[in-house]
Each structure stands twice: as structure tokens, then as C-alpha cells.
Amino acid sequence: MSLSRDDVAGVAKLAKLQFSSEELDQFTDQLGRIVSFVDQLNQVDTEGVDTMAHPLDVESVVREDQLADSLDRTDALKNAPKQDGEFFLVPPVMAK
Q: pLDDT: is 13 or 96 the higher one?
């Protein structure tokens, strides 16, 4: 499959990009070579090859949740610049 200049111009328009005539010629050539390479990959015989999401065996690195004591509220608020005895007080970040 080859790309025409109109194909690249159409993709550029969809992406809301504007290119000069020289840039459009350059991108047509570059994208055409990329599409040709992908077309070569489509010709590889993959019969009997299992599909995979990752080329390596990946194990979950997420540890199991473990119940632990948390910091006491008074200790957590002890060094807060502003607090009301129950919550940290911070300036608003969004207008009402």
C-alpha cells in the first residue's frame, strides 16, 4: 500500500495541522516508507504463533494489601500550619 499526497493532506487536516508544500512532500515520503515497512511485517507467516500482549512474561508487581495501624489524627495534625482539630485547613484552589 502506498500513500498519496492527498492521503497525507487528509490526515493532516483531520489532525488540524497545516504543512507547506515541501513539508507535505517530505511527510508523504516518510509516511510512505513507514507504511511499506508495516506491509512487509504483514507478509510474515504467523501461523501457529500465540497472540500476546507483551513480548516478555510479566508478573504482577503489586503486593497484597496488608492491614496496618494508621497515624493517629492528633499526631497527623500536630505540625499542620492550619487545622481545626479534625481536618487540615488549606486555601481554596477553585473559585466558587
A: 13
Asked if the model's pLDDT at residue 49 lies above 90, the reply is: no
Geometric angle at alpha carbon 89, from 83 and 90, rounded to 5°: 145
Residue 34 is given by DSSP the state H
Average pLDDT, rounded, for the chain: 90
Q: What is the DSSP letter of 72?
A: P
CB distance 21 to 51 below 8 Å: no
- Tell me how far the alpha carbon of residue 47 is from its chain's centroid: 31
Structural domains of the chain in order of their starting residue, each with its CATH number: 5-42 (1.10.20)
Is the whole model's pTM more than 0.70, yes or no?
A: no
Q: Tell me how far CA of residue 30 lies from CA of 1, 4, 18, 58, in angstroms.
A: 14, 11, 17, 34
